[in-house]
Amino acid sequence: MGKSAEYMTVKEAAEMWKVREERIIYTCECGGIDGAAKLSGQWIIPVGISEPIIMQIPSHSNELTAEQNKRTKKQQAFIDAFKGDAIPFSVSEHQHGKTKMIVTCCASKNATQTASEIMFSLISREFGLSLSEHNKILKQIRQEQIEKQPSYSEYMESKKEMLIKMEFCEDDIAMLLDKYAEVYQPLK
């Protein structure tokens, strides 16, 4: 007789891969763990398989594609930033001890100042500039940005390159480019 396969429980897999049991179950339900099977209503997972990509449980839709379920936490944070009144322009991970934080930098869709102008305003407070000096420099910053601002097609191409570097799937790139197109405003 052949040797029978050894299996582990969802709880054992969750402990070994350091993820919540719910995510293991969801990944099994989506067919993401080779050899996983249901036995008496409980998922069992083959012992000795390499760690699979554990899917995120979608909070807003049960109709996500398999590609969308493979988003990294950074990618999901970037997409989530578009909800409400924000336009994300960067996302990064920071480790502090055992805590990993994902930070998304955003601008308001209705912002009247650019990121450079906001940063200058924050820094200028430290140097005690007078209001007239501050406004004069802000005007120079705005003028330089107007002169250097990319055309609409250059703007969209730079966003596409950024999203490709972040390794978004094609569906997500198309969706995010649509959002950038909606909020594009040339400087005046």
Structure description:
The chain is an alpha+beta fold. 47% of the residues lie in helices and 17% in strands. The protein is built from eight helices and five strands; from the N terminus they run βααββααββαααα. The strands form two sheets. Strands 1-3-2 form a three-stranded antiparallel β-sheet. Strands 4-5 form a two-stranded antiparallel sheet. A hairpin with a 2-residue loop joins strand 2 (37-39) and strand 3 (42-46). The chain is elongated and about 75 Å long. The protein starts with 6 loop residues before the first strand and ends in a 5-residue tail after the last helix. The mean pLDDT is 77.
Number of DSSP strands?
Answer: 5
The total of helices stands at: 8
Radius of gyration: 24 Å
The N- and C-terminal alpha carbons lie at a distance of: 79 Å
**pLDDT averaged residue by residue:** 77
